[in-house]
Amino acid sequence: MNEGFETLAIHAGQEADPQTGAVVPPIYAVSTYKQDGVGGLRSGYEYSRSANPTRTALEEAMAAVEGGVRGLAFASGLAAEDALLRAVCKPGDHVIIPNDAYGGTYRLFAKVNERWGLHYDPVALDDLSAVAAAITQKTKIVWVETPTNPLLGVSDIAALAELAHDCGALLVVDNTFASPYLQQPLALGADIVVHSTTKYVGGHSDVVGGALVAKDPELGERLAYHQNAMGAVAGPFDAWLTLRGLKTLAVRMDRHCDNAERVVDLLLAHPKVTSVLYPGLPEHPGHEVAAKQMKRFGGMVSFRVAGGEAEAVEICNRAKLFTLGESLGGVESLIEHPGRMTHASAAGSPLEVPGDLVRLSVGIETVDDLLADLTQALG
Ligand code: P1T
């Protein structure tokens, strides 16, 4: 299909129901399918762990918006990551991960997969020579998150893809922060895209989910085999909600970006703020790369404050319209203290985040209301 992003998000995998004409794929709340004689499957459906029509619609739509050939929907972002790692790696293999990855991704590597013999090294991915130096003969994956959670670090997907491929490794990109509307990793050379669809794709803080999209059919097939064999699939209700969110991703993202830019301006001018982390700022070390590979710079903003951890925590506590809570990417604005909340599992590790850091997921409320709340929260 040559359609534009918005058309694909609304229509790919979502033909009107052939029987009723329903324009939205129904929620197929069903576990099994009547066979017309043993093995006589209608439309290939056999059992809903293997495939379910509502999930198929989401999977096809995700593949289309990421420009891949195979999409797979999981029960959570971490379930998607786990399936990917076990499909691609075996004990003794090695993965390069960002030295500022999402805390839960780090925990999956450090506390779960390391015990099964999958080794990892956290590396600053914006330093290509450091990445090259860390790659070994056992390296199967260079795992990229860009922008990173919560420090908004940026790395060059095209350059890392070339490096990974030269060494026989796959390039995986966690595209959760940017969303496919702002960044297309497969077109830049990545092999697999990972999502926590809980975030911008779902977009309404009402569903947890994950997705993988592969560029290569064989790799897609291997991932699909593991999705079914391991079983952490997205249920039909969750797939339906996620698909509903995906339809409006483009318009939501533009407003997230508009509002984030205004929030950044406010923070830059505030005496209590010591630094603002946002790839849209010309002084951000990854700004040039971000401008090259992203359509806009997203709705996530982090900042550091004078007064250290105690003040950062107080700002989070004082916020009202910015709801204090984990997660991100929903229509409502959220504020959190990564050190004590989303990234607490990285405490004491090389991925520990600074205590004076506050993270904002800038929502799509009236921007003046957001600015007023931040002003009172900053005190
Ligand atoms: O929460 P889950 O759907 O399992 O997705 C995990 C995940 C993966 N990758 C990134 C970049 C993420 O941000 C997340 C989840 N993050 C949060 C819950 C958070 O508040 O940062």
UniProtKB/TrEMBL annotation:
This enzyme's EC code(s): 2.5.1.48
Question: What are its GO biological-process terms?
Answer: cysteine biosynthetic process via cystathionine; transsulfuration
Alphabetic keyword roster:
Pyridoxal phosphate
Q: Which CDD domains match?
A: CGS_like
Pfam families given in the database record: Cys_Met_Meta_PP (PF01053)
Catalysed reaction(s) here are:
O-succinyl-L-homoserine + L-cysteine = L,L-cystathionine + succinate + H(+)
Name-wise, this protein is Cystathionine gamma-synthase
